[in-house]
Design brief:
The protein is mainly beta. The chain is built from four helices and 36 strands. The strands form ten sheets. It has a five-stranded mixed β-sheet with strand order 5-6-2-1-9, with no helix packed on it. It has a five-stranded mixed β-sheet with strand order 21-22-18-17-25, with no helix packed on it. A hairpin with a 2-residue loop joins strand 5 and strand 6. The chain is elongated and about 155 Å long.
Length: 526
């Protein structure tokens, strides 16, 4: 039997040793399906890919996506008639096949809107227009900000324009837009990317925007609408100090587009003054940088499966004081779920599923008690835990073999016990099972061969043999001449014991007599 198990064990080891790929697909702009299987890195082998929608024949991939000569994805045609059909994929390498069934109804990502323009209407309102090449069943989201302040989002349904009422002539407005399939047509989980911004307002080309980077330096730029036509010089100061020229310019194609200057935490709540100069033209500006702080993203994001069976994520933020963090977690590449963390650099995920894949990212900003920043840091690098990733973590071959051998050994022991009663009795001694069907206690026992039940009959009687008391008799009191030819009977019990005649006499031994109780009317003397 062991020889028959060896091929099976070898096959199991080979399957567990190979990494299992997983395919993720996305419908791009309702024009083609893009499938990839490299979300966790380039595969070790070159897979071939085939797919089909329900109701059609399977076809091999005609347009592979490659990375360093290895197939990592495939692009295949798509029509809107296939929107609600099930999609089937198959990855093949040699004799190994990996099948998957996908519902792509919510996996649609449109291209960002194009030709975003702005017009000051005759109604004194500001009108923004854009073009979405898939206008049907599409909802849009616009975000507007004034003078580079916080973005304000708004939703737009089945339209390709947006109205901003009564804008200020002295302010600068910026708008971006993105789109997705709306809910009435099978809502998509994915928004398009944001469009290029459309800007309206005065003093655009000399508009200075400054940001405090990680509480270490101030970064000011004046190229938000493109590289300036002239080379400006820049000077700045915080309140209470002298104005100083820029010592560290940021350049683009030989033209100054920004400046980096030192910063200390003591200047956090002070007003910042800037001045752009070109010849006789000067453009001063006054800025409040309290909310214009952007921290670097957290680093060293790690994950640990704790002894409390929870999943613990840890990270490092080099500016830990007055910092709030936001984590986002997703399971098996599904939708991100955000959570807030205050004054801590860890996050606990309660009782994770051992069969799922978890991914976490974290970002930080200055919290409200210390002057809340408008800007979050960028998201950290993700920390991943679990096995349901695109390339499953393979179990060591010998571990798998030991598991299988242990199971087969247990099966063999059970089979041996079932077929060999002697070993079964040695390993598992049988317990007595009395049956109370018979009132006779002797029926409960099992008698060996050669013994009969009647030999153990409890109903028996035996004649009692009472014991008598012996007393020594002096030899002088006896007649030796008369005793030589006699037979002496000593009655110890009612069962008489005869003493053999002519037995030699031991002259040194004393003579005994038995005193018979008077009530029995007997006396024996020697």
């Amino acid at each position: 039997m062991l020889k028959q198990l060896l091929p099976f064990l070898f096959l199991v080891g080979q399957i567990l040793a190979n990494k299992t790929p997983d395919v993720e697909c996305l419908v791009v702009h309702l024009e083609h399906v893009r499938c990839v299987w490299n979300l966790q890195g380039t595969p070790d082998v070159n897979y071939t890919f085939s797919s089909r929608f329900s109701g059609e024949r399977e076809s091999s991939c005609a347009d592979y996506l490659t990375e360093r000569g290895t197939n990592i994805g495939c692009r295949r045609p798509y029509t809107t008639a296939q929107r609600f059909n099930t999609f089937y994929t198959k990855l093949t390498h040699g004799t190994q096949m990996y099948l998957k069934e996908l519902d792509l109804k919510g996996k649609v990502k449109l291209n960002p809107p194009t030709n975003v323009t702005v017009k000051n209407g005759s109604d004194f309102n500001l009108w923004f227009y854009w073009n979405q090449t898939k206008p049907n069943c599409v909802e849009s989201q616009v975000r507007v900000r004034m003078n580079n302040n916080k973005w304000e989002p708004s939703s737009v349904y089945n339209a390709q324009h947006y109205c901003l009422n009564l804008p200020s002539s002295s302010a600068r407005y910026e708008l971006q837009v993105r789109s997705r399939i709306e809910s009435s047509c099978g809502e998509s989980e994915f928004w398009s990317d944001w469009s290029e911004p459309a800007v309206w307002g005065s003093n655009n080309t000399t508009y200075v925007e400054c940001l405090v980077i990680h509480l270490e330096h101030v970064r000011c730029v004046w190229n938000l609408q493109g590289t300036p036509d002239v080379n400006y010089t820049f000077s700045s100061r915080f309140s209470g100090e002298r104005e100083s020229s820029c010592a560290d310019y940021l350049t683009e194609s030989g033209t100054n587009i920004g400046c980096r200057r030192p910063y200390t935490i003591a200047q956090r709540f002070e007003t910042f003054y800037t001045k752009l100069t070109h010849g006789d033209q000067k453009y001063p500006k006054e800025l409040d940088l309290k909310g214009k702080v952007k921290l670097n993203p957290p680093t060293n994001v790690t994950v640990k499966n704790g002894s409390d069976f929870n999943l613990w994520f840890y990270w490092n933020q080099t500016k830990p004081n007055c910092v709030e963090s936001q984590v986002r977690v997703r399971m098996n590449n599904n939708k991100w779920e955000p959570s807030s963390v205050y004054n801590a650099q860890h996050y606990c995920l309660n009782l994770p599923s051992s069969s799922a894949r978890y991914e976490l990212q974290v970002r930080s900003r200055i919290e409200s008690s210390c002057g809340e920043s408008e800007f979050w840091s960028d998201w950290s690098e993700p920390a991943v835990w679990g096995f349901n990733n695109t390339t499953y973590a393979a179990m060591p071959v010998w571990t798998a073999v030991l598991y299988v051998l242990g199971a087969m050994t247990l099966v063999l022991l059970v089979m041996i016990l079932l077929h060999n009663k002697r070993i079964k009795i040695i390993l598992i001694p049988p317990l007595p099972k009395p049956v109370l069907n018979s009132p006779d206690v002797e029926d409960w026992f099992h008698f060996s061969k050669g013994l009969i039940k009647e030999g153990f009959n409890a109903n028996f009687s035996e004649r009692a043999c009472p014991v008598r008391e012996y007393q020594p008799v002096s030899r002088s009191d006896s007649n030796s001449s008369d005793s030589s030819g006699l037979t002496t009977t000593t009655d110890q019990t009612d069962c008489s014991i005869a003493i053999a005649e002519n037995e030699p006499e031991d002259t040194s031994a004393p003579l005994y007599t038995t005193v018979i109780p008077s009530e029995e009317g007997q006396q024996v003397s020697v």
